[in-house]
Design a protein that fits this description.
alpha/beta, 8-stranded mixed β-sheet, two-stranded parallel ribbon, 10 strands, 36% helix
Length: 264
């Protein structure tokens, strides 16, 4: 059977994730599976493809996912399995997981139980559940029984943030967001150790994209130093290129857009 490598981006409809989806459609010839929760998938499909020239629209395949619902995540994984060619060996070439929300508490009196719960649900739990249901699409473990592995390890990438670093925390604030990103970084490390034990030809890493000009960071644009507020298209290109260059010895850690390690 022939190999069927593909790209996976979740979510894929706004800001950095939308730019990543378009980047992979523009710079590779691989199928791109992208998640969304739109009520109008046909319109969304056209919107994602709208600025791209000479792209086969069949390469973009949308999967409906509500990140706060394990049932939805499981159904999307099943839909992906049903969508790949039956006479092929499908596997993830590169996957980006970017689900995230931010409630910027500046002091303990700002804490809100519902907001904290949502922060951990989206920033941590959804990432765990995506691992649970989608990691089966990584390349098969290396062994004679499974044949020759891909030339390079698959890249399983979670979008984290520098504020998840405990050692780098010099300003305080953003309690739940910082805590959730620190937890996500632990997930990244732990899943990568699992991949190593199972001899899966893949690495798991986290990435810090810098401050990207998206709705998530809108409130803080004015405080970003000149030259450090990135357009989503630029950030996506830098991240994708950096991830492509990562070697196996860089696995299980968090890297910023410039290829420098974000220490725990």
């Amino acid at each position: 059977m022939s190999s069927y490598p593909f790209i996976f981006v979740s979510p894929s409809t706004r800001g950095l994730s939308l730019s990543l989806t378009r980047h992979f459609l523009r710079t590779t010839n691989l199928p791109v599976f992208a998640t969304h929760r739109s009520a109008s998938p046909d319109a969304l499909h056209k919107h994602i493809l709208s600025p791209l020239a000479d792209i086969n629209p069949a390469r973009l395949k949308l999967l409906n996912v509500e990140l706060t619902s394990e049932k939805s995540i499981a159904s999307a994984a099943q839909a992906l399995g049903d969508a790949v060619p039956k006479d092929s060996k499908p596997y993830i070439h590169t996957a980006f997981f970017g689900g995230g929300v931010l409630y910027p508490e500046r002091q303990p009196s700002d804490f809100d139980a519902a907001a904290i719960s949502e922060t951990f649900q989206v920033n941590v739990i959804s990432h765990l559940l995506m691992i649970k249901h989608f990691s089966r699409f990584l390349p098969q473990p290396t062994s004679k029984a499974h044949g020759t592995p891909p030339d390079a390890p698959a890249k399983w990438v979670h979008i984290s943030a520098r504020v998840g670093s405990v050692s780098d925390n010099r300003l305080g604030g953003w309690y739940s967001y910082r805590a959730s990103k620190a937890a996500l970084n632990q997930v990244i490390r732990t899943f990568d150790l699992h991949l190593q034990r199972k001899r899966v030809p893949a690495i798991c890493v986290g990435v810090h994209p810098g401050t990207v000009k998206t709705d998530l960071s809108r409130e803080f644009w004015d405080g970003v130093p000149e030259g450090k507020l990135f357009e989503p298209e630029h950030a996506a290109e830098r991240l994708a290129e950096m991830v492509q260059e990562l070697k196996e010895e860089q696995r299980g850690r968090v890297w910023d857009w410039a290829g420098k390690e974000v220490l725990p």
